[in-house]
Structure formats: structure tokens, C-alpha cells
Amino acid sequence: MITIFVLLSGVACKAQIKNASSETVKIYGNCEMCEATIEKAGNIKKIAEVDWNEETKMATLTFDSKKTNRDEILKRIALAGYDSDSFLAPLDTYSQLPSCCQYERKAKLKETKESTTTSVSKTEMHDHAAIPEQKQEVQQLKAVFDNYFGLKDALVKTDGGIASSKANSLLSAIGAVKMEKLTTEEHTVWMKVVKDLGIDAEHIADTKDPSHQREHFIPLSKNMYQLIKVSKQSSPVYYQFCPMANDGKGANWLSKENSVKNPYYGSMMLTCGSTIETIK
């Protein structure tokens, strides 16, 4: 019965993930806490699922092959502190793991600030260097930022239908980003925010209620700010603040215009707020 249950669980998982591909890889770790961290770092709802075995140290990666790949999943796990044979965790991240989770490291780390970058092959590094940095950014993150600004404009107009559509487009743009083509700074921030960006965009896409959409636009904007700070922009981006939003706690958003058009209140208080930072 247990075997049948496991098999059925695996079938159910694949059924939820479109274009499902599976690979088995070794990921180093020790205990149940490691298992929880590894799986949380690798999982993305309806896109990627990780099942790690504490005894064998083997992980089954099931993922939508049109939206992600093995390397992107292993990079996320490495940035959570866990080595694979392909990508090494940053030394400072590994050092912050609980003592019971500090597994014996099999691979020798090079003396770099961020050891995940040392695991990229020489060919990949050559190809990465051959592409102008600005071109990479336009290809990889422009659609993410453009759809965020489209979502913001829809909330300014209090149009829940368009906001839902723009959030769906944002989800697609997030899934299309090829992390290996990001700059080192972009990659580091991307790994920290991508999961939450997806969660908030999905919540906004799943409703046409502007009030609920605005609740998730607050953390979405906070994470988008971190990302846009490390990405070169062709024109200034304005980080703006409304002290009345979020039940009087205040909330921020990003805009391509210096003039304030409030996405949290729309026409009710269209110009409430101010620019607090210009990002160039």
C-alpha cells in the first residue's frame, strides 16, 4: 500500500506540472532539517518540485522544462547552503547552517566571494562574457520590469481585470528568465526574491478585486525594488511612497514617471505620495 501511495503521489505531482521532466541528482546534506530547506529552496508552485532522500542524498527534480531547468533549481538550492556536484553553496551561507546540517563538503571551494559562480563551466563563462551586459539585462529582465509597470498602471486606474492580465504576463516573464545570463549581482538578488515575486504575482492574477491585488502589490513592489536596484536602467526609475496606504503603515511602488500616480488609491487620492529615491 505504501509503495502504491508513493507512486500515486509522484503521478499527482507530475500532473500538476506541465511539460514535466525529471532528473535525479546528488545533493549533500544530513538530516530532516536539510530536507525541508533543500525542498523549499528548489520548489516553485506548478513549475518545480524537489524530493530529497536523507539516506541516499539523492534528489528527484520534477520541473516544467519550458519554464525552468535542472541548473536553475540546483543554483537555488546552492544559495540556500547545499552543494551538488554541479553547484557549490557560498561559504558564508554554508557556515550559517545549524551545526546538525553542516554536512561534510566533498568538493573543494575556490577562494571567491560567491562560490556558486565558480561552478559555471569555462564554456559558459566565455559565452556569458561574450554577450554585452546591457544586452543580457534587456533580454532577461526587461519583460519582468515592463509587466510590473503595466500592473502598476492598471492599479492606478483601479482596473482589476487588466491588473489580473498583467500579473499573468508578469508570471510568464518571471518563468522565462534564464538565470545563467544574469549578472552576478542580479543573480544573487534574483535567487532571494524570485519565489516571493511569483507568489504575489499569482495572487494578483487569480483575482479581479483591486483591494486584494493591492495587498499583494505591496510586497511585490518591495522585492521588485531590490531587483531593479542592481539592474542597469536605460532611463530613471522612481521609488515612491504613500504614507496612507497599508492601513496607515505606508507602502512603496516603482514608477517610470516622477509625477505621483498612486496605485493604492487610484482616483480617490491619485497624487498622494512622493518620490523618495531616483534609481539610475
Structure, explained:
The protein is an alpha+beta fold and 280 residues long. It is built from 9 helices and 6 strands, in the order αβαββαααααααβββ. The protein has a 3-stranded antiparallel beta sheet. Strands 5-4-6 form a 3-stranded antiparallel beta sheet, covered by helices on one side. The protein is elongated and about 60 Å long.
Helix content: 40-55%
The secondary-structure element order is HEHEEHHHHHHHEEE
Radius of gyration computed on alpha carbons: 21 Å
* Average pLDDT for all residues: 84
Content-based structural category: alpha+beta
Number of strands: 6
Number of helices: 9
In the sheet with the most strands, the strands line up as: 1-3-2
Strand content: 5-15%
Main sheet specs: 3 strands, antiparallel
Entry summary:
With 280 residues, the chain is of the alpha+beta class.
Which descriptors would you attach to this protein?
three-stranded antiparallel sheet, 280 residues, alpha+beta, disordered N terminus
Strand and helix map with partners:
Elements: H1 2-16, E1 20-26, H2 32-42, E2 48-52, E3 58-64, H3 70-79, H4 91-95, H5 122-130, H6 133-156, H7 160-176, H8 184-205, H9 210-229, E4 237-242, E5 251-255, E6 274-279
Antiparallel strand pairs: 1-3, 2-3, 4-5, 4-6
